[in-house]
Predict the structure.
Amino acid sequence: MIRSVRFWASLAISAVFIGLFLRATHPVAIKNAMVGANYWYLLPAFGVLLCAISARCVRWSVLMRPVAPLSPLRLLPYAIIGYMANNLLPARAGEVVRAYVLGDREDVSKLGTFGTIAVERLFDGCILVLMLLIAGSYVGFNDNKLRIIALASTVFFLAALVAFYILTLSEARAKRVVHRLVAFLPARFEHRAEGIAEALVLSVRSVHDARSLVLVLIFSTAAWTIEAGAYAVVGLGFHLGVGFPNYVLLLAAANLAIIIPTFFGGTGPFEWAAKLTLVGAGVSNSVAGAYAIIAHALVLVPTTILGLILLWSFGVSFRRMTGMKAEAPEVVVP
């Protein structure tokens, strides 16, 4: 893994944003702000975060219907393993790990599963952009950098959404596009090309059903709103004195910032964007910095520990997990 260009690129990007995060704020001041916080609020905040993860599992079960009928409870361990892998591996490799572990244990199409995860990420980005624009218009974009995040993410996800529906609206067109993409795979996968195309098209077209689309939108919005609630609970421990719309703006800006391939679950861009949002709301640099570190730790640490425990209980080694991207794709079309 350490020989990978993406590893070093992700590490470099994280380092740059950590430098930006620490600029104008002395680490000692951040440490002092941490000492004055009430960490008992982390317990209920983690409970709220689990509710957000559960809502995402309900959404995932809706997207998985064309691939395999799996309940949200059954999908929960794989979702947590995906979070853990994203936290420990660069460039959001956890999405691949999640698809592979689920495919191995549930005997379903790994590529079909990965297709549902790609649709998840598309709708996550669109919902976050919408939340960013609504919250920003309500409390104000108090920094030009937030406006840049809003503009760049709006253009990116709007283009991605339009392209997605243009390419997948027609099943025949979607198959032609996927067949062209599959042609770039190594020759040893040629005999699986048809199955690969079928699995991917089946999964990415899941939101063309009106009922599924509505459910995905509802649970995507619910999950991110609940997660903003977790950040608000952590904020009580730091006595930030900002309203819920500020936490929504923080949530959207910080999570859109970590779309950039980084290391350790977006460490660097998340803290930078969260601090930027709070300072714009009138919170001091040191308190905003301390809050950003602890809020991100709430998202990273428990899911990483739980994910490693679940991975161990499934009999999958961490070394095997880091090599999953290189394994040959298997296709199981139900």
